[in-house]
């Protein structure tokens, strides 16, 4: 396996304390069966009759690092082998897992987990998930782990880089069927483009030299979407291979008989220049994510039906497609290996705070055809709190749009919703955001926003808010971004009086919180879980060194004041 360190910051918080040890194969077998049955029931609304038919142990040196269990219905479950880390790495109900045919992208991920598990063992950390292991073993699954929201896998294709998908690639006698591999970046691009069945034909031409000059005339190439099947057949291989090769040339693929490579960062320009996709498409680095919750950005794309091209690098680069999510912890990945290993994966850093294994990651966001509407259907947001925007991404919003959002948190404790704006810029009096205190437009209108000034926040009287953004046919502006949080204390204003201050922010050790006199203070994570409560007396020093890196909120409530501030722990 290649040395490759990969993580994905999904904020799934569980804890327990006890002495940790290597999880035995027998114990893991029971955990795998219970987990698989539980997830199957929630996903399919019927009981699972599958049983374990194969077992594989992945080692770090001589110690077990993870287990892979094959199920009789062609599914699989992958578990870690140490109770100090989150138990389930990945699973699938329909794609069998053959360790001898592991996609290099998935092999890299498993190697990353093995390295992180070894790190935890070497550091003798006390950070333990033993209680979570025990709960699954005894079928006492926690509600937090199984709040079941899902975007099913969006892709249906199961393509790969080799034969016959490489039929248009340069010839080389050492390559599959005498040709070079198409490359994982091209395979990921081709599958996402096929998902959209767009464009009818491309734009312009592109010359590329690799032993010879290759010229692709995108403008005069008409793609035969109806001929492209989920897996290549004799009749469909030519159409699929042509598209895949055109993707490869558009990113200047470095072709090779043992593997072909390019950069995921080049995908946005290729999609915009040669395939007429949205100008707002962008590659975003996880490290440069401006402290926005990475998982929320990914889920926002998936909620809108937009698969992402995801990448990571270690000793070698890898690209694959993220096209669905389940619960708050699992994302669906299509590895571009004819379906092998495709499934739901926990993409988190297993190591304790202070040890960053999250480098060299990125994703291509907002992949959609140029004229695709970005708010064709109303959107319902059920998270306890989240960021969201007008939907136009990095571009100006469109004319003649009408976009709707219903905020309806699933949390039992959600009695009110507070919403505030991080940015706001629309045409004054023309392009207007309406906010209603209820579930639709029949509810009372509590705010109407337009112009360049950031509006003050609002708080609902109940557990729903409805927003509608309407634009006219004349001008376009950057739009807006907002954050909401739900809670269990009835408050009529987002803030009043002296504001709350927190500094330094981001922080890794001690922060100072200034409150307007005596107040009840609560630190919450991104899922609304209470992390800590304390009484503020005007100026408090808070030690955050024990918190997992990420985004938190501090809610401050007194007789005259209500406020929420964001805290970034790094």
Give an overview of the whole structure:
With 570 residues, this protein is α+β, with helices and mostly antiparallel strands. Among the domains are: 379-487, Spermadhesin, CUB domain (Jelly Rolls), CATH 2.60.120; 501-569, Immunoglobulin-like. Helices cover 16% and strands 29% of the residues. It has seven helices and 29 strands. The protein has helices spanning 25-44, 104-123, 130-137, 184-196, 237-250, 267-275, 294-303, and strands at residues 52-60, 63-71, 76-80, 88-92, 150-151, 205-209, 213-217, 282-285, 308-313, 317-326, 330-334, 343-346, 361-365, 379-381, 385-389, 402-407, 416-425, 432-436, 445-449, 458-459, 465-470, 479-487, 501-503, 510-514, 519-524, 530-536, 539-543, 550-557, 562-569. Strands 1, 2, 3, 4, 5, 8, 9, 10, 11, 12 and 13 form an eleven-stranded antiparallel sheet that branches. Strands 14-16-21-18-19 form a five-stranded mixed sheet, with no helix packed on it. A hairpin with a 5-residue loop joins strand 25 (519-524) and strand 26. It is globular and about 75 Å long. The two termini are 30 Å apart.
Secondary structure: elements and pairs:
Layout: H1 25-44, E1 52-60, E2 63-71, E3 76-80, E4 88-92, H2 104-123, H3 130-137, E5 150-151, H4 184-196, E6 205-209, E7 213-217, H5 237-250, H6 267-275, E8 282-285, H7 294-303, E9 308-313, E10 317-326, E11 330-334, E12 343-346, E13 361-365, E14 379-381, E15 385-389, E16 402-407, E17 416-425, E18 432-436, E19 445-449, E20 458-459, E21 465-470, E22 479-487, E23 501-503, E24 510-514, E25 519-524, E26 530-536, E27 539-543, E28 550-557, E29 562-569
Parallel strand pairs: 14-16
Antiparallel strand pairs: 1-2, 2-3, 3-4, 4-12, 5-10, 6-7, 8-13, 9-10, 9-13, 10-11, 11-12, 15-22, 16-21, 17-20, 17-22, 18-19, 18-21, 23-24, 24-27, 25-26, 25-28, 28-29
Helix pairs in contact: 1-3, 4-5
